[in-house]
Amino acid sequence: MTANQPYLLRAFYEWIVDNNLTPYIVVDAHYPGAQVPQEFVQDGQIVLNVSPASTGKLHLGLQEVNFEARFGGVPRNLVIPCPAVLAIYAKENGAGTVFTVEDSAATKEVEEFDTQEAPPQPKKGKPTLTVVK
């Protein structure tokens, strides 16, 4: 199965925007492939305003989030792998969700389970019953 985090991220984003609130995401700035302005990173994380008014060409994909934004008046193109998104919330009231590492680990376990060999087929032939007292 594919990870559910990108779907949940998109759903929470739409819910926050539909309620006229400002969506913010918390990103692991050191995640491999994350392209974020490092000068704004604090404690390995960056909080980004991803509202329609603050971003251009926002794309919430299954593999990554990418958009254009200005930082100190300088336009930047940001690329964020979905697993690097740690949380999404509304600025005004904090409503949203935190994505945990266990979410992606659970998906990996399901994928590993799906690739295991099928159990052996039962023996063919006449069935038998045993009386148990």
- Order the strands across the largest sheet as they lie in space: 2-1-6-7
Mean pLDDT: 87
Radius of gyration: 22 Å
Structural class: alpha+beta
Order of helices and strands: HEEEEEEEH
What's the tally of helices? 2
Could you describe the largest sheet, including whether it forms a barrel? 4 strands, antiparallel
Distance between the termini: 45 Å
- The number of distinct β-strands equals 7
The level of helicity is 10-25%
What oligomeric state best describes the polypeptide chains here? single chain
Low-confidence stretches: 103-107
Beta-strand percentage range: 25-35%
Which shape, going by the Cα principal axes? elongated
Tags for this model:
alpha+beta; single chain; 2 helices; 4-stranded antiparallel β-sheet; 3-stranded antiparallel β-sheet; 133 residues
Characterization of this structure:
This protein is of the alpha+beta class and 133 residues long. The chain is 21% helix and 31% strand. The protein is built from two helices and seven strands, in the order H-E-E-E-E-E-E-E-H. The strands form two sheets. It has a four-stranded antiparallel β-sheet. It has a three-stranded antiparallel β-sheet with strand order 3-4-5. A hairpin with a 3-residue loop joins strand 3 and strand 4 (64-71). It starts with a helix and ends in a 19-residue tail after the last helix. The model is unreliable at 103-107 (pLDDT under 50).
